[in-house]
Design brief:
It is built from 15 helices and 15 strands. With 467 residues, it is α+β, with helices and mostly antiparallel strands. The chain has 3 domains: 228 residues, no CATH class; 97 residues, PDZ domain (Pdz3 Domain); 105 residues, 2-enoyl-CoA Hydratase, Chain A, domain 1 (Alpha-Beta Complex), CATH 3.90.226. Helix 3 crosses helix 9 and helix 6 runs antiparallel to helix 8. The radius of gyration is 26 Å and the shape is globular.
Protein backbone atom coordinates (compact mmCIF):
# COMPACT_ATOMS: atom_id res chain seq x y z
CA UNK A 1 0.00 0.00 0.00
CA UNK A 2 1.28 3.43 -0.92
CA UNK A 3 -0.26 6.26 1.07
CA UNK A 4 1.25 9.59 0.10
CA UNK A 5 0.90 12.45 2.55
CA UNK A 6 2.48 15.70 1.44
CA UNK A 7 6.21 15.11 1.95
CA UNK A 8 5.76 11.60 3.30
CA UNK A 9 5.39 8.39 1.33
CA UNK A 10 6.12 4.70 1.68
CA UNK A 11 9.29 4.38 -0.33
CA UNK A 12 12.85 3.40 0.40
CA UNK A 13 15.74 5.83 0.40
CA UNK A 14 17.33 5.78 -3.01
CA UNK A 15 21.10 5.55 -3.25
CA UNK A 16 23.05 8.49 -4.57
CA UNK A 17 24.35 7.69 -8.05
CA UNK A 18 27.55 9.41 -9.09
CA UNK A 19 30.28 9.23 -11.67
CA UNK A 20 33.99 9.61 -11.13
CA UNK A 21 36.35 12.50 -11.51
CA UNK A 22 39.90 12.15 -12.69
CA UNK A 23 41.53 9.63 -10.35
CA UNK A 24 44.24 11.99 -9.24
CA UNK A 25 41.79 14.76 -8.33
CA UNK A 26 39.09 12.77 -6.53
CA UNK A 27 40.32 12.96 -2.96
CA UNK A 28 41.17 16.64 -3.25
CA UNK A 29 37.71 17.41 -4.69
CA UNK A 30 35.98 15.46 -1.93
CA UNK A 31 37.89 17.35 0.75
CA UNK A 32 36.37 20.62 -0.44
CA UNK A 33 32.79 19.49 0.19
CA UNK A 34 31.15 21.26 3.15
CA UNK A 35 27.38 20.94 3.05
CA UNK A 36 24.86 23.04 4.95
CA UNK A 37 21.06 22.95 5.23
CA UNK A 38 18.85 25.30 3.25
CA UNK A 39 16.01 27.46 4.53
CA UNK A 40 13.51 25.23 2.70
CA UNK A 41 14.81 22.19 4.57
CA UNK A 42 14.20 23.95 7.87
CA UNK A 43 10.53 24.35 7.01
CA UNK A 44 10.34 20.81 5.63
CA UNK A 45 11.70 19.39 8.88
CA UNK A 46 8.97 21.13 10.87
CA UNK A 47 6.34 19.88 8.42
CA UNK A 48 7.61 16.30 8.62
CA UNK A 49 7.43 16.53 12.42
CA UNK A 50 3.84 17.74 12.19
CA UNK A 51 2.84 14.86 9.93
CA UNK A 52 4.61 12.10 11.85
CA UNK A 53 3.33 13.20 15.25
CA UNK A 54 -0.34 13.65 14.29
CA UNK A 55 -2.77 10.71 14.26
CA UNK A 56 -4.73 12.37 11.46
CA UNK A 57 -1.83 11.77 9.08
CA UNK A 58 0.01 8.71 10.38
CA UNK A 59 -1.25 5.35 11.58
CA UNK A 60 1.17 5.11 14.52
CA UNK A 61 2.35 8.62 15.40
CA UNK A 62 5.05 8.99 18.02
CA UNK A 63 5.91 11.89 20.22
CA UNK A 64 9.23 13.40 19.27
CA UNK A 65 11.07 13.13 22.57
CA UNK A 66 14.50 12.14 23.87
CA UNK A 67 13.82 8.42 23.36
CA UNK A 68 12.87 8.89 19.71
CA UNK A 69 15.79 11.28 19.27
CA UNK A 70 18.15 8.50 20.36
CA UNK A 71 16.64 6.13 17.78
CA UNK A 72 16.96 8.73 15.03
CA UNK A 73 20.59 9.29 15.97
CA UNK A 74 21.42 5.57 15.90
CA UNK A 75 19.70 5.08 12.55
CA UNK A 76 21.42 8.06 10.97
CA UNK A 77 24.88 6.94 12.09
CA UNK A 78 24.10 3.45 10.80
CA UNK A 79 22.96 4.85 7.44
CA UNK A 80 26.29 6.62 7.04
CA UNK A 81 28.66 3.97 8.37
CA UNK A 82 26.90 0.65 8.90
CA UNK A 83 30.14 -1.33 8.58
CA UNK A 84 32.03 0.85 11.11
CA UNK A 85 34.89 1.50 8.70
CA UNK A 86 35.00 5.31 8.67
CA UNK A 87 34.11 6.80 12.04
CA UNK A 88 36.25 6.15 15.09
CA UNK A 89 34.60 5.33 18.40
CA UNK A 90 35.65 8.78 19.62
CA UNK A 91 33.81 10.42 16.71
CA UNK A 92 30.61 8.59 17.52
CA UNK A 93 30.93 9.30 21.22
CA UNK A 94 31.39 13.00 20.51
CA UNK A 95 28.28 12.99 18.31
CA UNK A 96 26.37 11.02 20.92
CA UNK A 97 27.21 13.47 23.68
CA UNK A 98 26.29 16.48 21.56
CA UNK A 99 23.20 15.26 19.72
CA UNK A 100 21.74 11.86 20.68
CA UNK A 101 18.99 13.23 22.93
CA UNK A 102 18.79 16.69 21.35
CA UNK A 103 17.67 15.91 17.83
CA UNK A 104 14.02 16.15 18.91
CA UNK A 105 14.45 19.79 19.89
CA UNK A 106 16.40 20.48 16.69
CA UNK A 107 13.77 18.96 14.36
CA UNK A 108 10.88 20.69 16.10
CA UNK A 109 12.72 23.98 15.69
CA UNK A 110 13.56 23.31 12.05
CA UNK A 111 17.28 23.05 12.83
CA UNK A 112 18.89 20.18 10.94
CA UNK A 113 22.44 21.45 11.34
CA UNK A 114 23.44 18.44 13.49
CA UNK A 115 22.84 16.09 10.57
CA UNK A 116 25.10 18.17 8.34
CA UNK A 117 27.80 18.56 10.98
CA UNK A 118 27.91 14.77 11.38
CA UNK A 119 27.91 14.29 7.63
CA UNK A 120 30.78 16.71 7.05
CA UNK A 121 32.90 14.77 9.53
CA UNK A 122 31.92 11.64 7.65
CA UNK A 123 33.26 13.21 4.44
CA UNK A 124 36.59 13.90 6.16
CA UNK A 125 36.82 10.31 7.40
CA UNK A 126 36.01 8.89 3.97
CA UNK A 127 38.75 10.96 2.39
CA UNK A 128 41.23 9.82 5.04
CA UNK A 129 40.32 6.18 4.43
CA UNK A 130 40.52 6.54 0.65
CA UNK A 131 43.95 8.14 0.91
CA UNK A 132 45.11 5.34 3.20
CA UNK A 133 43.66 2.61 0.96
CA UNK A 134 45.25 4.00 -2.19
CA UNK A 135 48.62 4.22 -0.44
CA UNK A 136 48.34 0.56 0.57
CA UNK A 137 48.18 -0.41 -3.09
CA UNK A 138 51.82 0.57 -3.49
CA UNK A 139 52.84 -2.36 -1.26
CA UNK A 140 53.10 -6.08 -1.91
CA UNK A 141 50.63 -8.21 0.05
CA UNK A 142 51.75 -11.39 1.80
CA UNK A 143 48.99 -13.91 1.19
CA UNK A 144 50.70 -16.59 3.29
CA UNK A 145 49.90 -14.78 6.55
CA UNK A 146 47.33 -16.49 8.80
CA UNK A 147 44.79 -13.72 9.42
CA UNK A 148 41.10 -13.15 8.84
CA UNK A 149 38.83 -10.34 7.72
CA UNK A 150 35.33 -9.82 9.15
CA UNK A 151 33.33 -9.19 6.00
CA UNK A 152 30.10 -8.10 7.72
CA UNK A 153 30.80 -5.63 10.54
CA UNK A 154 27.23 -4.42 11.03
CA UNK A 155 27.12 -5.77 14.60
CA UNK A 156 30.74 -4.95 15.43
CA UNK A 157 31.98 -1.99 17.46
CA UNK A 158 33.62 1.11 16.06
CA UNK A 159 37.40 0.94 16.18
CA UNK A 160 38.91 2.73 19.16
CA UNK A 161 42.15 3.96 17.59
CA UNK A 162 43.35 5.11 14.21
CA UNK A 163 45.95 2.32 14.26
CA UNK A 164 43.20 -0.29 14.62
CA UNK A 165 41.24 1.30 11.80
CA UNK A 166 44.34 1.45 9.60
CA UNK A 167 44.94 -2.25 10.15
CA UNK A 168 41.29 -3.05 9.40
CA UNK A 169 41.59 -1.22 6.09
CA UNK A 170 44.84 -3.04 5.37
CA UNK A 171 42.94 -6.32 5.70
CA UNK A 172 40.04 -4.98 3.65
CA UNK A 173 42.31 -3.85 0.80
CA UNK A 174 44.22 -7.13 1.00
CA UNK A 175 40.92 -9.02 0.77
CA UNK A 176 39.88 -6.98 -2.29
CA UNK A 177 43.24 -7.64 -3.92
CA UNK A 178 43.10 -11.36 -3.13
CA UNK A 179 39.67 -11.69 -4.73
CA UNK A 180 40.98 -10.11 -7.94
CA UNK A 181 44.14 -12.23 -7.74
CA UNK A 182 42.02 -15.39 -7.55
CA UNK A 183 40.08 -14.12 -10.56
CA UNK A 184 43.29 -14.16 -12.56
CA UNK A 185 44.11 -10.45 -12.59
CA UNK A 186 47.75 -9.34 -12.79
CA UNK A 187 49.33 -7.26 -10.04
CA UNK A 188 49.19 -4.10 -12.16
CA UNK A 189 45.55 -4.74 -13.11
CA UNK A 190 44.68 -5.21 -9.45
CA UNK A 191 46.31 -1.92 -8.48
CA UNK A 192 44.61 -0.02 -11.29
CA UNK A 193 41.17 -1.51 -10.58
CA UNK A 194 41.29 -0.96 -6.83
CA UNK A 195 42.77 2.52 -7.11
CA UNK A 196 39.87 3.51 -9.35
CA UNK A 197 37.37 1.82 -7.00
CA UNK A 198 38.61 3.68 -3.91
CA UNK A 199 38.93 6.99 -5.74
CA UNK A 200 35.34 6.64 -6.96
CA UNK A 201 34.23 6.24 -3.35
CA UNK A 202 35.59 9.69 -2.57
CA UNK A 203 34.04 11.00 -5.77
CA UNK A 204 30.57 9.74 -4.83
CA UNK A 205 30.82 11.45 -1.47
CA UNK A 206 32.12 14.64 -3.10
CA UNK A 207 29.07 14.80 -5.35
CA UNK A 208 26.54 14.38 -2.56
CA UNK A 209 24.15 17.31 -2.33
CA UNK A 210 22.42 19.00 0.56
CA UNK A 211 19.11 17.36 -0.40
CA UNK A 212 20.73 13.90 -0.17
CA UNK A 213 21.90 14.53 3.40
CA UNK A 214 18.50 15.92 4.37
CA UNK A 215 16.71 12.94 2.83
CA UNK A 216 18.93 10.49 4.72
CA UNK A 217 18.31 12.31 8.02
CA UNK A 218 14.54 12.54 7.49
CA UNK A 219 14.48 8.85 6.59
CA UNK A 220 16.22 8.07 9.87
CA UNK A 221 13.37 9.96 11.56
CA UNK A 222 10.60 8.34 9.47
CA UNK A 223 11.83 4.76 9.79
CA UNK A 224 12.25 5.21 13.54
CA UNK A 225 8.47 5.72 13.60
CA UNK A 226 7.88 2.53 11.58
CA UNK A 227 9.70 0.82 8.69
CA UNK A 228 7.20 1.56 5.91
CA UNK A 229 7.39 5.34 6.07
CA UNK A 230 10.04 7.36 4.27
CA UNK A 231 10.87 10.86 3.10
CA UNK A 232 11.17 11.73 -0.59
CA UNK A 233 12.90 14.74 -2.06
CA UNK A 234 11.20 16.35 -5.08
CA UNK A 235 13.53 14.43 -7.40
CA UNK A 236 12.82 11.13 -5.64
CA UNK A 237 9.10 11.89 -5.71
CA UNK A 238 9.20 12.48 -9.48
CA UNK A 239 11.01 9.17 -10.02
CA UNK A 240 8.35 7.47 -7.90
CA UNK A 241 5.60 9.04 -10.01
CA UNK A 242 7.35 7.86 -13.18
CA UNK A 243 7.42 4.31 -11.82
CA UNK A 244 3.69 4.53 -11.05
CA UNK A 245 2.54 5.96 -14.38
CA UNK A 246 5.07 3.89 -16.39
CA UNK A 247 5.86 6.81 -18.62
CA UNK A 248 8.09 9.84 -18.89
CA UNK A 249 8.90 12.57 -21.35
CA UNK A 250 12.40 12.18 -22.69
CA UNK A 251 14.44 10.21 -25.21
CA UNK A 252 13.69 6.67 -24.01
CA UNK A 253 17.15 5.61 -22.88
CA UNK A 254 18.39 3.99 -19.68
CA UNK A 255 21.68 5.47 -18.48
CA UNK A 256 24.33 4.25 -16.08
CA UNK A 257 27.58 5.65 -14.78
CA UNK A 258 30.84 4.08 -15.91
CA UNK A 259 33.97 5.69 -14.54
CA UNK A 260 33.87 9.33 -15.68
CA UNK A 261 31.10 8.85 -18.23
CA UNK A 262 27.35 8.45 -18.38
CA UNK A 263 26.75 5.50 -20.70
CA UNK A 264 23.71 4.29 -22.66
CA UNK A 265 22.78 0.99 -20.98
CA UNK A 266 19.64 0.25 -23.00
CA UNK A 267 16.97 1.95 -25.09
CA UNK A 268 13.20 1.69 -25.04
CA UNK A 269 12.07 0.01 -28.28
CA UNK A 270 10.26 2.55 -30.42
CA UNK A 271 11.50 5.46 -28.30
CA UNK A 272 13.15 8.58 -29.74
CA UNK A 273 16.70 7.38 -28.97
CA UNK A 274 16.16 4.01 -30.64
CA UNK A 275 14.38 5.54 -33.66
CA UNK A 276 17.14 8.11 -34.17
CA UNK A 277 19.52 5.40 -35.36
CA UNK A 278 22.38 7.57 -34.08
CA UNK A 279 22.72 6.15 -30.57
CA UNK A 280 23.79 2.64 -29.60
CA UNK A 281 24.13 0.77 -26.35
CA UNK A 282 27.54 1.51 -24.84
CA UNK A 283 27.82 5.02 -26.28
CA UNK A 284 28.94 7.73 -23.85
CA UNK A 285 27.26 11.11 -23.34
CA UNK A 286 29.85 13.89 -23.04
CA UNK A 287 27.71 17.03 -23.34
CA UNK A 288 24.04 18.06 -23.33
CA UNK A 289 22.37 21.12 -24.87
CA UNK A 290 18.77 22.29 -24.80
CA UNK A 291 16.85 23.03 -27.99
CA UNK A 292 18.57 23.87 -31.23
CA UNK A 293 20.87 26.58 -29.89
CA UNK A 294 21.26 26.10 -26.12
CA UNK A 295 24.75 25.98 -24.69
CA UNK A 296 26.40 22.56 -24.80
CA UNK A 297 27.22 21.67 -21.19
CA UNK A 298 30.07 19.24 -20.59
CA UNK A 299 28.74 16.47 -18.32
CA UNK A 300 31.83 14.28 -17.97
CA UNK A 301 32.25 13.59 -14.26
CA UNK A 302 28.70 14.63 -13.41
CA UNK A 303 26.26 12.79 -11.18
CA UNK A 304 24.06 10.41 -13.11
CA UNK A 305 20.77 11.90 -11.90
CA UNK A 306 21.89 15.42 -12.86
CA UNK A 307 22.58 14.27 -16.41
CA UNK A 308 19.21 12.48 -16.53
CA UNK A 309 17.46 15.69 -15.46
CA UNK A 310 19.11 17.58 -18.32
CA UNK A 311 18.11 14.99 -20.92
CA UNK A 312 14.49 14.72 -19.79
CA UNK A 313 12.14 17.44 -20.94
CA UNK A 314 8.70 18.24 -22.40
CA UNK A 315 7.43 16.17 -25.30
CA UNK A 316 8.16 17.65 -28.75
CA UNK A 317 11.11 19.68 -27.41
CA UNK A 318 14.62 18.98 -28.66
CA UNK A 319 17.79 18.02 -26.84
CA UNK A 320 21.30 17.88 -28.31
CA UNK A 321 23.76 15.24 -27.17
CA UNK A 322 27.46 14.91 -27.85
CA UNK A 323 27.95 11.15 -28.12
CA UNK A 324 31.28 9.35 -27.89
CA UNK A 325 30.78 5.97 -29.60
CA UNK A 326 31.48 2.87 -27.53
CA UNK A 327 34.33 1.85 -29.83
CA UNK A 328 36.03 5.28 -29.71
CA UNK A 329 38.89 6.14 -27.37
CA UNK A 330 38.26 8.58 -24.52
CA UNK A 331 40.01 11.33 -26.48
CA UNK A 332 38.00 10.65 -29.63
CA UNK A 333 35.78 13.18 -31.39
CA UNK A 334 32.15 13.12 -30.16
CA UNK A 335 29.25 13.04 -32.62
CA UNK A 336 26.41 15.53 -32.13
CA UNK A 337 22.91 14.08 -32.15
CA UNK A 338 19.63 16.03 -32.08
CA UNK A 339 16.65 14.15 -30.64
CA UNK A 340 13.05 15.26 -30.26
CA UNK A 341 11.71 14.20 -26.88
CA UNK A 342 8.44 12.27 -26.72
CA UNK A 343 6.26 10.61 -24.14
CA UNK A 344 7.79 7.18 -23.60
CA UNK A 345 5.98 4.25 -22.01
CA UNK A 346 8.20 2.04 -19.86
CA UNK A 347 6.91 -1.28 -21.14
CA UNK A 348 9.63 -3.29 -19.41
CA UNK A 349 8.09 -2.34 -16.04
CA UNK A 350 4.53 -3.28 -17.05
CA UNK A 351 2.70 -6.58 -16.51
CA UNK A 352 3.98 -9.38 -18.75
CA UNK A 353 2.73 -12.88 -19.59
CA UNK A 354 4.09 -16.19 -20.75
CA UNK A 355 2.72 -19.71 -21.19
CA UNK A 356 4.46 -22.69 -19.59
CA UNK A 357 3.77 -26.31 -20.43
CA UNK A 358 3.72 -28.33 -17.21
CA UNK A 359 3.79 -32.12 -17.14
CA UNK A 360 1.44 -33.75 -14.62
CA UNK A 361 -0.25 -37.07 -13.89
CA UNK A 362 -3.11 -36.10 -16.23
CA UNK A 363 -0.83 -35.06 -19.06
CA UNK A 364 0.53 -31.71 -20.18
CA UNK A 365 -1.18 -28.56 -18.97
CA UNK A 366 -0.69 -25.09 -20.41
CA UNK A 367 -0.33 -22.58 -17.58
CA UNK A 368 -0.36 -18.83 -18.14
CA UNK A 369 1.97 -16.85 -15.88
CA UNK A 370 1.46 -13.11 -15.41
CA UNK A 371 4.35 -11.26 -13.79
CA UNK A 372 3.37 -8.00 -12.12
CA UNK A 373 6.33 -6.01 -10.72
CA UNK A 374 4.19 -3.33 -9.04
CA UNK A 375 0.59 -2.19 -8.63
CA UNK A 376 1.10 0.83 -10.86
CA UNK A 377 -1.38 3.57 -11.69
CA UNK A 378 -1.09 7.02 -13.23
CA UNK A 379 -2.80 8.90 -10.38
CA UNK A 380 -2.95 12.27 -12.14
CA UNK A 381 -4.29 10.85 -15.40
CA UNK A 382 -6.99 8.93 -13.56
CA UNK A 383 -8.03 12.07 -11.69
CA UNK A 384 -8.30 13.82 -15.07
CA UNK A 385 -10.47 10.92 -16.27
CA UNK A 386 -8.08 10.19 -19.16
CA UNK A 387 -9.40 7.19 -21.05
CA UNK A 388 -6.02 5.45 -21.44
CA UNK A 389 -4.33 6.06 -18.07
CA UNK A 390 -1.73 3.47 -17.01
CA UNK A 391 -3.24 0.81 -14.79
CA UNK A 392 -1.92 -2.53 -13.60
CA UNK A 393 -5.49 -3.85 -13.46
CA UNK A 394 -6.26 -2.86 -17.03
CA UNK A 395 -3.05 -4.45 -18.29
CA UNK A 396 -3.65 -7.68 -16.36
CA UNK A 397 -7.25 -7.75 -17.60
CA UNK A 398 -5.99 -7.53 -21.18
CA UNK A 399 -3.42 -10.28 -20.61
CA UNK A 400 -6.06 -12.53 -19.04
CA UNK A 401 -8.18 -12.07 -22.16
CA UNK A 402 -5.26 -13.05 -24.38
CA UNK A 403 -4.57 -16.15 -22.27
CA UNK A 404 -8.23 -17.13 -22.37
CA UNK A 405 -8.21 -16.89 -26.17
CA UNK A 406 -5.13 -19.11 -26.28
CA UNK A 407 -6.91 -21.75 -24.21
CA UNK A 408 -4.67 -22.06 -21.16
CA UNK A 409 -5.69 -24.47 -18.41
CA UNK A 410 -4.93 -22.07 -15.56
CA UNK A 411 -3.24 -18.83 -14.57
CA UNK A 412 -0.59 -17.99 -11.97
CA UNK A 413 -0.13 -14.40 -10.80
CA UNK A 414 3.58 -13.96 -10.05
CA UNK A 415 3.90 -11.28 -7.36
CA UNK A 416 7.23 -12.46 -5.92
CA UNK A 417 9.10 -9.28 -6.87
CA UNK A 418 6.15 -6.94 -6.47
CA UNK A 419 7.18 -3.98 -4.35
CA UNK A 420 3.65 -2.65 -3.73
CA UNK A 421 2.07 0.44 -5.19
CA UNK A 422 -1.49 1.68 -5.43
CA UNK A 423 -3.94 0.11 -2.99
CA UNK A 424 -6.83 0.86 -5.37
CA UNK A 425 -5.08 -1.11 -8.09
CA UNK A 426 -4.55 -4.09 -5.79
CA UNK A 427 -8.26 -4.08 -4.88
CA UNK A 428 -9.50 -3.69 -8.43
CA UNK A 429 -7.09 -6.31 -9.74
CA UNK A 430 -8.40 -8.76 -7.14
CA UNK A 431 -11.83 -8.05 -8.59
CA UNK A 432 -10.74 -9.75 -11.82
CA UNK A 433 -10.74 -13.04 -9.91
CA UNK A 434 -13.78 -12.74 -7.58
CA UNK A 435 -17.39 -11.74 -8.15
CA UNK A 436 -17.50 -9.23 -5.29
CA UNK A 437 -16.67 -8.93 -1.63
CA UNK A 438 -14.09 -7.61 0.83
CA UNK A 439 -10.46 -7.53 -0.25
CA UNK A 440 -8.60 -5.69 2.51
CA UNK A 441 -9.29 -3.98 5.81
CA UNK A 442 -7.57 -0.74 6.76
CA UNK A 443 -7.38 0.28 10.40
CA UNK A 444 -6.68 3.94 11.16
CA UNK A 445 -4.91 5.43 14.15
CA UNK A 446 -8.21 5.75 16.01
CA UNK A 447 -8.96 2.06 15.68
CA UNK A 448 -11.68 2.48 13.05
CA UNK A 449 -11.75 -0.24 10.39
CA UNK A 450 -12.55 0.56 6.77
CA UNK A 451 -13.37 -2.45 4.60
CA UNK A 452 -12.31 -2.07 0.96
CA UNK A 453 -14.33 -4.38 -1.28
CA UNK A 454 -14.37 -5.24 -4.94
CA UNK A 455 -17.39 -3.61 -6.54
CA UNK A 456 -19.65 -5.64 -8.81
CA UNK A 457 -19.39 -4.50 -12.42
CA UNK A 458 -16.28 -2.45 -11.60
CA UNK A 459 -15.08 -3.54 -15.03
CA UNK A 460 -18.32 -3.75 -17.08
CA UNK A 461 -18.38 -6.06 -20.03
CA UNK A 462 -15.50 -8.19 -18.76
CA UNK A 463 -15.93 -11.77 -17.62
CA UNK A 464 -14.22 -12.62 -14.34
CA UNK A 465 -11.32 -15.03 -14.54
CA UNK A 466 -11.75 -18.31 -12.70
CA UNK A 467 -8.66 -19.83 -11.19
Amino acid sequence: MIKRLSLIACVALLPVLAVGLDAGAKTEAAAQVVLAPSADQSGAARLVHGLLSDSRYHYSPRKLDDALSAEIFDRYIDALDSQKLFFLAADVEQFRTAYRTRLDDAIRGGRVDPAFEIYNVYVERVNERVEHARALLEREFDYSTDESWLYDRKDADFYATREELDDAWRKSVKNDALRLHLAGRSTEEIRTTLDRRYANLASRVAQTKSEDVFQSFMNAYATAIEPHTGYMTPRTSENFNISMRLSLEGIGAVLQNQQDFVVIRSMVPGGPAALSGSIRVGDRVTAVGQGTSGEMVDVVGWRLDDVVDMIRGPADSQVRLDILPAAASVDGEPERVVITRQKVRLEEQAAKRQILEVEGPDGTRRIGVIELPTFYQDFEARRRADADYSSATRDVERLLGELREEGVDGVVMDLRNNGGGSLNEAIELTGLFIESGPVVQVRDAGGRVDVHADRPAAWPGTARWRC
